[in-house]
Amino acid sequence: MVTQITRGIKISVMTAFEGTYFKNHKMHFAFSYHITIENHSKDSVQLMARHWEIFDALNEMETVDGEGVIGKKPVLKPGETHTYSSGCLLCSPHGSMKGHFEMINFTSTRSFKVIVPTFKLNAPFALN
Asked: Could you tell me the domains of the chain?
């Protein structure tokens, strides 16, 4: 698990290899990631958007931007936690992801970025 705290918001990430399958006559490697967002600040915040940089050992980096996470824009009061799971496909058994969440602080009404630390995506059978 990797963790990082930005402005009182703690992000923890766990990953899992889900298997391989063929799509468009090409093998793909499926990974899941489980993210926990903890509000250790004194203010209520809301997650508004996400930005991902997905690195695949056999492809160029892919950038993904979107509103919320898995169709939600969670509000976290001080001390609250939000957990969600998602996934990605790679053409290689090795890769990584990193990014940030765009949040709004309800007290100051200002937006700020919360860093999601780099997390590795590795198929166990491909590791030495």
From this structure: 2-126 (2.60.40.1470)
